[in-house]
Amino acid sequence: MKGMKSKSAKGFTLIELMIVVAIIGILAAIALPAYQDYTKKSRFSEVNTAVGALRTAVTICFQETNDLTECDAGAYGIILPTLPSENIATLTVADGVISATSDANSDSTTMTATPTAGTPLTWAVTGTCTTKNWCQD
What we know:
The chain has helices spanning about 15-65, 130, and strands at about 90-95, 95-100, 110-115, 120-125. By secondary structure, the chain is an alpha+beta fold. It has one domain (about 15-130): Glycoprotein, Type 4 Pilin (2-Layer Sandwich), CATH 3.30.700. The chain has a four-stranded antiparallel sheet. A hairpin with a 5-residue loop joins strand 3 (about 110-115) and strand 4 (about 120-125). The protein is rod-shaped. The protein starts with 13 loop residues before the first helix and ends in a 5-residue tail after the last helix.
């Protein structure tokens, strides 16, 4: 018996492996929804960019005409991008009010930027993007 060495077990037990799998499952359950929201928000950033450019154009139109009803798409340099784009479904400008809807990849989220005449021109942003905290003021 002196010449026999005890064989030590190497590797992981089944319970240790089950614990690791459970931890990975919990982390995935938390990370996946956060990642999906992040990708939708990044797709919505194209809407923010387009609306931001149109806000500048409407502001210039208002400075030139002092009348928001003159500030429509196609007038005074207010040019809409070609639609549909990859992430924008609709985009309109009427009487200075800019309305945009994203495509289904970001849940068809809406954004409306409404100007208030004054010096300076002020903007109120509404839509479903406000509840998701995706809008830029």
